[in-house]
Fold this sequence. Notes:
globular, 4-stranded mixed β-sheet, about 40% strand, 5-stranded mixed β-sheet, 2 domains, about 20% helix, 3 helices, 2,3-Dihydroxybiphenyl 1,2-Dioxygenase, domain 1
Amino acid sequence: MPETRPRQRISAFALLVDDYDRAIAYYTEVLGFDLIEDTPLGAGKCWVRVRPSGAGETDLLLAKAATSEQSARVGDQTGGRVFLFLETDDFRRDYDAYKARGVDFVEQPRQEGYGTVVVFRDLYGNRWDLIGRG
């Protein structure tokens, strides 16, 4: 009898933030993400999930730093490397909209074998790739 493989998926990535409201405003108003959930858990904690509009199943869990060690990592969870990859169906539309909203691009868009890409920093300094395939 063939072995059945489990069905698994990555449902969310935790992203350390300094303030829930500030993070929600940035990701929804500047990047245009949808607020999926904002549930108070008590003691100043919340379960906050956002995701790009039209995205599938993977969310960003906005996790408020709770210790000095976590606070030191806000904006630098990967040592300055690009951390998140945001793929779009219309690179020029999103690039222009983000520029108009003050997104911090660290380079000019460039062509790669997989499409058009540009690196930007979010509110906290995390580095992202904005990618338009094809």
